[in-house]
Automatic annotation (TrEMBL):
Domain of life from the UniProt record: Eukaryota
Signal sequence annotation: none
Residue ranges occupied by any NR LBD domain in the UniProt entry: 54-179
TM segment ranges: none
Alphabetized InterPro entries for the sequence: C.elegans_Orphan_NR, NHR-like_dom_sf, Nucl_hrmn_rcpt_lig-bd
Species of the source: Caenorhabditis japonica
Protein keywords: Receptor, Transcription, Transcription regulation
Protein name according to UniProt: NR LBD domain-containing protein
Any single Pfam family the record assigns to this protein: Hormone_recep
């Protein structure tokens, strides 16, 4: 087994960049205030959208909205470089899609806005990941993807054999040190 920094120190690779005793040149500040404001707007004015499906129960509305959000794109982009800009774009897509999807859950609509936002902040990563895995499975079932391709955005995928990761925005370590 190759001895990487994570094995040597006994800590997961991406926690290594959090060593307090190492001076760091990388101090990336990501302001997501605009994202919180957009999600707040979505969750605040969502009642008019949910009335469109008023004849159905919450589960049917959520399923229907999930299908709308998952509509296949005509053209998929293949991501070759995954850095800060791309990561932020995909995080934004997932966060706002999750906010939109959650608005079709009647019981959630009855909660105060701050509780809705807490639920969104906790669940968006999980929901987004599960949704991308479901899309990947659909494309594989239709034989449009090989086993090395994965969905990472609404209309973007990556081939794990042919892409580059730029981690310079979040750590001083090289990729070789993190493996």
């Amino acid at each position: 087994m190759p001895l990487g920094l994570a094995n040597f120190l006994g800590r997961p690779a991406f926690i290594l960049s959090c060593e307090p005793d190492r001076a760091t040149r990388v101090n990336t500040f990501i302001d997501v205030t605009f994202l919180i404001h957009r999600a707040t707007d979505i969750m605040s004015v969502a009642e008019s959208e949910t009335r469109r499906f008023a004849a159905q129960d919450s589960l049917h509305r959520m399923t229907r909205k999930f299908c709308e959000l998952r509509k296949e794109k005509d053209q998929l982009k293949v991501v070759k470089v995954l850095g800060l800009k791309e990561s932020m774009f995909f995080w934004e897509q997932d966060f706002l899609a999750t906010a939109t999807w959650l608005t079709h859950f009647d019981e959630l609509q009855q909660l105060p806005l701050n509780v809705k936002m807490q639920i969104l902040k906790v669940g968006w990563v999980l929901w987004g990941r599960l949704e991308k895995l479901a899309k990947t499975a659909d494309y594989r079932r239709k034989k449009q993807f090989g086993s090395d391709c994965f969905m990472i955005g609404d209309d973007a995928c990556l081939d794990i054999q042919d892409f580059e990761v730029d981690i310079s925005w979040c750590t001083n370590y090289t990729k070789e040190q993190l493996v």
